[in-house]
Automatic annotation (TrEMBL):
<dbReference type="InterPro" id="IPR027417">
    <property type="entry name" value="P-loop_NTPase"/>
</dbReference>
<feature type="transmembrane region" description="Helical">
    <location>
        <begin position="89"/>
        <end position="118"/>
    </location>
</feature>
<keyword id="KW-0067">ATP-binding</keyword>
<feature type="transmembrane region" description="Helical">
    <location>
        <begin position="283"/>
        <end position="302"/>
    </location>
</feature>
<dbReference type="InterPro" id="IPR039421">
    <property type="entry name" value="Type_1_exporter"/>
</dbReference>
<keyword id="KW-0472">Membrane</keyword>
<feature type="transmembrane region" description="Helical">
    <location>
        <begin position="171"/>
        <end position="189"/>
    </location>
</feature>
<keyword id="KW-1133">Transmembrane helix</keyword>
<dbReference type="GO" id="GO:0005524">
    <property type="term" value="F:ATP binding"/>
</dbReference>
<dbReference type="InterPro" id="IPR003439">
    <property type="entry name" value="ABC_transporter-like_ATP-bd"/>
</dbReference>
<feature type="domain" description="ABC transporter">
    <location>
        <begin position="371"/>
        <end position="604"/>
    </location>
</feature>
<feature type="domain" description="ABC transmembrane type-1">
    <location>
        <begin position="19"/>
        <end position="337"/>
    </location>
</feature>
<feature type="transmembrane region" description="Helical">
    <location>
        <begin position="195"/>
        <end position="212"/>
    </location>
</feature>
<feature type="transmembrane region" description="Helical">
    <location>
        <begin position="16"/>
        <end position="40"/>
    </location>
</feature>
<dbReference type="InterPro" id="IPR003593">
    <property type="entry name" value="AAA+_ATPase"/>
</dbReference>
<dbReference type="InterPro" id="IPR017871">
    <property type="entry name" value="ABC_transporter-like_CS"/>
</dbReference>
<dbReference type="InterPro" id="IPR036640">
    <property type="entry name" value="ABC1_TM_sf"/>
</dbReference>
Length: 609
């Protein structure tokens, strides 16, 4: 229940609905008891048992409640039957019963009506907060977690919680109240008989809790498995091309089927356990009623201490107690499931973002002098990827990072953009440690183009406009022209309004990359970071993209990570990395003259091409 309690704060804005629900439920409980009691005068009329009472009974205190109520009802019936014929009295009684049931159901509806706003409000707010958290959490979080699992938590776990919000109010307000009102009425009719009900309630409560014990664990398993198979689905859709090309359909299908099989087993056992609830409580209820029938029947027939009509009303009441008892057991399961779901949702919500912002961070709006990496060391997991690394990038210069794959080039891009935080040392922009800058202003200074262009299922225009809020069509077009994208965009069926498909898959690699560059150009940041922006391209589109990049880098500060060395020959400083350390740096000519690692790399590449 602890997790669920924490989720309760999401219900706070909607507490007025909870209140209205509680009020409606009080009336519901009241009228469901009155509905049963209204059977009594009806039976009296039917069996012509009405004691004639000609004077209005007087209220003498709560201890005399039962007599007062029966006398009043009898007085009412007497009065009515003196005035009109039995048929009409009967009609009146039937009318009374129907009215009571109508009111009961009206308040039932109202209770559900109000709680609907709370449930769906919680659902909406919880999803929104989860989504915000999903965006806020650093890249590193998702290299460890499965995406599908996060999706499962935002979709189905949240639904589970929404569902249990209904149950929790049923559990603590509606059903207990119904039981209390009903028991009060039963006590008024016969305290002796009611003793049996008191024996039965705790006993069935105990049995129900036995069934519910392992429910959270089971439900946990089911939800986890759901996350797992969503992950497989997500990966399958993302890698469909490779799966088909490698004939790996059966591998993935097997993986998926083994997950759905586990899901099948887990949810069978969960559902079967859950389904035990109603039958058990109904059976124990009927067993208790059997005892009451036997005992009460004797009171009516043998001892003659109870009137038959009262006994029938009493039976109706005690049957009525079964419904809430069943609902309570069901609701308590639902709350347990909600608790398991809440745990999974809170796990995301309560994950601390390791890339935190300080209080009152600096909002840097311009870049004036340099980016400095001073004595930085960094590791993703156990092994240091960068050790005591130093680098200065002066405003207006282009620094190229070269080196074998795995030497730590992309890591530097990750650190400068603060996707990760350094373990030691500091990175500063114009003398401000980037940890003291707001992330928004830091990233506002930078444009990033990576090897794989990240595009969204939307129009060309909107994909480019991501770089700048409220960009005009002219600005978008100007950016596309600089990025050598305008011409091919105009050839698309709907020009700038063409939808480019999921991840831009309706375009070629070079076209996609030129859209990414258009986006960066539109953003127009003072610092550009290019991480192997052309290495996924063929020579023809590489030439177009390279040309676009050079136009973009003009008058800017750039950190360029290049696979193909021919593309960075004009850089002001070329830094050669090896296993996270700088082995050489200088201009192209200086480095060739050194006759070291750089020269070897250049020779290797010219041999290859
Ligand atoms: N998210 C990550 N988690 C753990 N290790 C990583 C991660 N990303 C990269 N690495 C490791 O860090 C090292 C440097 O990687 P990277 O900077 O991407 O190299 P490259 O120079 O090819 O861009 C590699 O050994 C790689 O295995
Ligand atoms: Mg890399």
């Amino acid at each position: 229940m602890n997790y669920f309690k924490k989720i309760l704060r999401f219900a706070k804005p909607y507490r007025i609905y909870a209140l209205l629900n509680i009020i409606s439920n009080i009336f519901y409980a009241l009228f469901s008891t009155l509905a049963m009691i209204s059977l009594f005068p009806m039976l009296n009329v039917l069996f012509k048992q009405t004691e004639k009472i000609y004077t209005k009974p007087e209220w003498t205190g709560i201890s005399n409640l039962k007599n007062y109520v029966t006398d009043t009802l009898n007085f009412f019936v007497t009065e009515q039957s003196e005035q009109s014929d039995p048929g009409e009295v009967l009609m009146l009684m039937v009318g009374l019963i129907i009215t009571m049931f109508l009111l009961k159901n009206l308040f039932n509806y109202l209770a559900m009506y109000f709680i609907t706003f709370l449930r769906n409000g919680v659902l909406k707010d919880l999803r929104n907060e989860l989504y915000d958290k999903t965006i806020e959490l650093p890249i590193s979080y998702y290299s460890e977690k499965r995406k599908g699992d996060t999706i499962a938590r935002i979709t189905s776990d949240v639904l589970e919680i929404q569902h249990s919000f209904l149950s929790i109010l049923e559990l603590i307000v509606r059903e207990p109240l119904t039981i209390i009102f009903t028991i009060a009425a039963m006590l008024a009719i016969s305290p002796k008989l009611t003793l049996f009900v008191f024996l039965f309630l705790p006993l069935s409560g105990f049995l129900i809790s036995l069934i519910g014990k392992s429910l959270k664990r089971k439900s946990d398993k089911v939800q986890n498995e759901q996350g797992f198979f969503l992950s497989i689905l997500e990966e399958t859709l993302g890698g469909l091309r490779v799966i088909k090309a490698f004939n790996a359909e059966s591998v993935f299908a097997k993986k998926f089927q083994s997950s759905t099989k586990r899901f099948f087993n887990f949810s069978n056992s969960l559902l079967n356990r859950q389904n035990l609830a109603s039958p058990t409580s109904e059976f124990f209820g009927i067993a208790a009623i059997g005892v009451i029938l036997w005992y009460g029947g004797q009171m009516v027939l043998v001892d003659k201490t109870l009137e038959a009509e009262l006994f029938i009303t009493y039976m109706a009441l005690s049957y009525q107690i079964l419904t809430p008892a069943k609902s309570i057991s069901k609701a308590s399961y639902s709350v347990k499931k909600g608790n398991a779901a809440a745990e999974r949702v809170l796990e995301i919500l309560e994950t601390e973002n390791p890339i935190a912002e300080i209080k009152n961070p600096i909002e840097l709006t311009s870049f004036d002098s340099d980016i400095k990496l001073q004595h930085i060391s960094f590791k993703y997991e156990d092994e240091y990827v960068l050790k005591n690394f130093d680098l200065t990038v002066k405003k207006g210069t282009t620094v190229a990072l070269v080196g074998q794959s795995g030497s730590g080039k992309s890591t530097i891009a990750n650190l400068v953009t603060r996707f990760y935080d350094v373990n030691e040392g500091e990175i500063s922009i114009d003398g401000n440690n980037i940890k003291n800058l707001s992330k928004k202003s830091l990233r506002g200074l930078m444009g990033l183009v990576t090897q794989d262009s990240i595009l969204f299922n939307d129009t060309v225009k909107n994909n480019i406009a991501l770089g700048k809020e409220n960009a005009t069509e002219e600005e978008i077009m100007a950016a596309a022209k600089i990025a050598n994208a305008h011409d091919f965009i105009m050839e698309l069926p709907k020009g700038y309004d063409t939808n480019i498909g999921d991840s831009g898959n309706k375009l070629s690699g070079g076209q996609k990359q030129r859209l990414s560059i258009s986006r960066a150009v539109l953003k127009n940041p003072p610092i550009m970071i290019l991480d192997e922006a052309t290495s996924a391209l063929d020579t023809e589109s590489e030439r177009l993209v390279q040309d676009a990049l050079e136009k973009m880098m003009k008058n800017r500060t750039s950190i360029v990570i290049a696979h193909r060395l021919s593309t960075i020959q004009n850089a002001d400083n070329i830094v050669v990395l090896q296993k996270g350390e700088i082995v050489e740096q200088g201009t192209h000519t200086q480095l060739l003259a050194l006759n070291g690692t750089y020269k070897k790399l250049v020779q290797m590449q010219s041999l290859a091409s």
